[in-house]
Recover the amino acids of this structure.
């Protein structure tokens, strides 16, 4: 037996989960760092704005020396130097009375209060305020770089643990994800050790909620496989039994023909061999048909008119009906107002269904009896009816009659007991309802096949 080739894994679930968790963790951490940077920047703005305002008011409280004086810049918070200018209002206009080195000879800002603008090639924050008497104005300014530097420092303090802790987090997640996937590995081990014909379910112990649907689906699959194997074993046993009987009869008749001389006995034995061969061929044909229609088969359904199929089948089986003096009647009057009668069907399968129903009716009705075949419309549904005036099937035995290899009248029956089971399977493939009842004259059997409405 060839070794089973294991599929090449497309990806590692463990690695994918690890990467996803690390990516989500890193994104959350980076978002936290960004939020911390923005928060630190806002706090730095508040602190440095308060310092600028305090510096301006201290300068207003200082009486400047008369004339134009330049001094060193005022030291600011966190080492950020503050430039300043003090302007005095005169009848000739504003005069610069005092300024720090680097502040220049022109006003730092034209806006009263706080203002942020580009100055001297960089981003600066300015504050301007007049004295109470309106004679002096102080303008102070500080580069914005110090504020960004403090916010970046706060963000880096959070980024450093991320850089150092990410490998440790990856190792912890690798172990955690591995432990979380242990149930899947356990299930794979159970499946690897499982006998191919074992009907036992996997879900014998507690499993995680995420794995439970997989286990339930596998248990359902195993149950269906077990039923299929049981049906196959039963079908094989029944088929072997059914084939053994006609083969034994053929062998016996052939031996009789060999022992008999030229005459009537030999002729009768050879005729029996031919009849037995025909019955065996029919049995094999029905076995092959049933195997083709077993679970897993799919029918390609197309809109079609079943009346030509009914005419064809009745024409083919007319000689068999005449040989038994059976009156075979076909009624196709019940069509739509425009003369059409359409259903969703498969022509080959419907031919098999019609042939089995009509052939069964001819075989099981009495000699000189009647068989009726009709196609009619009942609302949106198409109804096929095949009836006879033979012995019929008792109500308590009708369900059993749909089983395989079931013959309710073995003393008289020539069939294999597969006809109605084939009909039932074809009806299932068409979504049709199959029912057995009493014939139109109160005796015999009437088989109804009701096809669903044709989809719009």
């Amino acid at each position: 037996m060839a070794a089973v080739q294991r599929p090449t894994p497309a990806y590692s679930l463990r690695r994918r989960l690890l990467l996803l968790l690390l990516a989500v963790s890193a994104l959350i951490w980076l978002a936290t760092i960004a939020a911390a940077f923005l928060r630190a920047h806002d706090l730095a703005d508040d602190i440095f704005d308060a310092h600028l305002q305090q510096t301006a008011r201290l300068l207003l409280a200082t009486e400047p020396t008369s004339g134009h004086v330049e001094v060193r810049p005022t030291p600011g918070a966190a080492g950020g130097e503050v430039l300043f200018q003090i302007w005095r209002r005169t009848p000739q206009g504003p005069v610069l009375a005092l300024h720090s080195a680097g502040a220049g000879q022109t006003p730092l800002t034209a806006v009263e209060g706080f203002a942020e603008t580009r100055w001297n090639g960089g981003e600066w924050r300015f504050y301007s305020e007049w004295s109470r008497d309106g004679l002096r104005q102080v303008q102070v300014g500080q580069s914005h770089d110090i504020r960004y530097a403090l916010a970046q420092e706060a963000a880096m303090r959070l980024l450093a643990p991320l850089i150092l802790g990410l490998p440790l987090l990856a190792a912890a997640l690798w172990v955690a994800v591995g432990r979380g996937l242990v149930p899947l590995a356990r299930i794979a081990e159970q499946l690897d050790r499982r006998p191919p014909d074992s009907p036992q379910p996997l879900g014998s112990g507690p499993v995680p909620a995420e794995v439970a649907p997989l286990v339930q689906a596998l248990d359902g699959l195993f149950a269906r496989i077990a039923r299929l194997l049981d049906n196959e074993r039963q079908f094989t046993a029944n088929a072997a039994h059914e084939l053994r009987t006609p083969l034994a009869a053929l062998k016996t008749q052939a031996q009789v023909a060999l022992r008999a001389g030229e005459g009537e006995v030999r002729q009768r034995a050879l005729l029996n061999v031919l009849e037995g061969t025909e019955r065996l061929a029919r049995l094999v044909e029905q076995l092959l048909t049933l195997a083709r229609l077993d679970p897993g088969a799919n029918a390609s359904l197309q809109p079609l008119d079943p009346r030509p199929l009914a005419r064809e089948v009745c024409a083919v089986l007319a000689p068999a009906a005449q040989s038994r003096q059976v009156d075979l009647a076909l009624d196709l009057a019940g069509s739509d107002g425009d003369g059409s009668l359409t259903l969703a069907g498969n022509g080959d399968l419907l031919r098999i269904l019609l042939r089995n129903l009509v052939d069964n009716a001819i075989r099981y009705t009495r000699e000189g009896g009647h068989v009726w075949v009709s196609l009619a419309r009942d609302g949106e549904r198409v109804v096929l009816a095949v009836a006879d005036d033979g012995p019929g099937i008792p109500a308590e035995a009708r369900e059993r009659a749909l089983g395989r290899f079931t013959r309710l009248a073995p003393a008289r029956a020539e069939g294999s007991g597969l006809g109605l089971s084939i009909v039932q399977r074809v009806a299932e493939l068409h979504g049709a309802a199959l029912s057995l009842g009493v014939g139109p004259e109160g005796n015999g059997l009437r088989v109804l096949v009701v096809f669903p409405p044709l989809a719009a």
